[in-house]
C-alpha cells in the first residue's frame, strides 16, 4: 500500500447484487448460448468486481472503476472487452489495475476467449501509454507468473 494516497477521499459507490439465475425449465439437452447481458453480469463482472484497489481497502466496483456497461462479451467470437475508469485522471496504479483485471479473467475464463482490457477513453492523462502496456504480451506473461496478482 502506498505511503501517501493520490486520491485520499475516493467516492464510494453502492455494489450491485448478483442476479438470481434459476432456470425456468431444466432441460439437459438444451444448448443455451450465453448472451452479452447474462455473461457480462454473471461471469465477467462477478470475476472482477471484488478485485481490491491497490491504494484503498475497497473493491473496483465500490470505486466505480468497473461497470457492467463498460463490459462487452461476444460468445460466438470468444471475445471479452473490459474498459475501466481510474478514480482520478493521473492515477499511477492504472496499469496495475488493468493487469489485475486481465490476469483474473485469463485465469478464470475458458482458454478460447481473447481478453481486451483498456482504460475508458478520455479518463486518464496517460491513456495511450497505459493501454500499450496492458496489451504488452511480456508484461502480461510476467503478471501471470506472479501468484498474488
From TrEMBL:
SUPFAM superfamilies (UniProt xref): Fe-S cluster assembly (FSCA) domain-like
Coiled coil regions in record: none
Biased amino acid composition, Polar residues: 1-14
Gene Ontology, cellular component aspect: cytosolic [4Fe-4S] assembly targeting complex
Keywords per UniProt: Chromosome partition
InterPro entries per UniProt: FSCA_dom_sf, MIP18, MIP18-like
Family statement drawn from the similarity comment of this UniProt entry: Belongs to the MIP18 family.
A matching Pfam family: FeS_assembly_P
Domain MIP18 family-like, first and last residues per copy: 43-118
PANTHER family, per database record: CYTOSOLIC IRON-SULFUR ASSEMBLY COMPONENT 2B (PTHR12377:SF0), CYTOSOLIC IRON-SULFUR ASSEMBLY COMPONENT 2B-RELATED (PTHR12377)
Organism ancestry: Eukaryota, Metazoa, Cnidaria, Anthozoa, Hexacorallia
Residue stretches of biased makeup (Basic and acidic residues): 15-29
Claim: Ubl conjugation is one of the keywords in the record: no
Organism from which the protein derives: Desmophyllum pertusum
BP GO annotations: chromosome segregation; protein maturation
Gene: FAM96B
Protein name per the record: Mitotic spindle-associated MMXD complex subunit MIP18
Chain spans, region Disordered: 1-29
